[in-house]
Amino acid sequence: MMSNKTYPVLLCFLWTLFGVSKIAFTYNIYLSSYIDILTIVNFLFVFMGAGIIAFRLLSKPVSFNAQIFVFFVLLLLSLLNNSIFALIFNFLVWYSIAEIVPIKSFRFVYIINIGLLIGVFYISVKLNGDTYYFDLRYGDVKSFGFENINSFPQLLIIFYLIFSTKIRHLFMLFLVYLLVFIDDIYTKSFYVILVIYPCLLLLFKYYRCRYLYLLPVMLFLGSILFVYMYASNIPIAIKVDQIFSYRISFSNIILSSIPNLYYLFFGLSGGGDEQLPMDLSYMAIIFTFGLIPSLIIILMYTRTLKSLIIKYDYGILALCTTFLLYAFVENILISFILNPTFYYVFYYLNSKR
What we know:
By secondary structure, this protein is an all-alpha fold. It folds into two domains: 66-100 and 208-353, no CATH class; 131-205. The protein has 16 helices and two strands. A hairpin with a 3-residue loop joins strand 1 and strand 2 (139-142). It is globular and about 55 Å long. The relative contact order is 0.11. The chain crosses the membrane at residues 6-25, 37-57, 69-95, 107-125, 157-182, 189-207, 213-231, 243-265, 280-301, 308-326. Keywords: Membrane, Transmembrane, Transmembrane helix.
């Protein structure tokens, strides 16, 4: 018979499992035709998320604090933008998981399910044949079952970040990645993050970066500034746009589609022109949820980093910092499954820890 400590871990495992299944049946070229299965998976994903929230509410009393205040503010804003309902659900599930699932159990569950997702995509192309995306720079590039060549490297990076905070473990995984994927993955950010993460681990272990908590603000404002500079035809912004594979110019086009200040502050459901990629996470959250919810998210990360610096938890600090840097070039900040840092955000925002 399962103990009360086992139930939340099982719920977390099932929610994450259905989450990665949702990604597989939505984005895998060979599995996306199974619409009926996807419908069932979507239902179970939401059902398990609701179960996690219910378990948290029933397991211990809820006291009014900053996190509850954030939920209340977002609930009011959702009256102006339906997209914010998804954000609230996302936050409530991660908040509940952080309250009822220990860190080691969460990491174990997450590693298993992300590893399973990587395996599904990798095996699908081995059984059904490789899939390719034509890139003007490199020609036909393997996409590992995705339509976008950057999607599979995203999974590998998320697994890499959550896998361990020990240099020797990361070094072994780093070598495995190079041996298996160096001839097939051309995404530059993939290799940059592979190097940055262990470097930050070493840096934070021996040096306390007291002002690192300002990084989310700098990345957020930097994204806005570069888009503004690009719109003003400033040469340095145009050069940076080329380096970042035209992510800034795409964001500028989408930003131009926002009709007025009302939608800028409260969000434009769908994020503007859906035909263009929104790879800059910090711009994507503005397009989808609006400036006010975006500032709330940035503030949450700022407070989390500050708490990690004070507690000198350099491993999780390096993980969250690397993820925030990666979010500058990939749209992964607001994701039900592919953003494990939300667990640490809500875990460390709890003032009692």
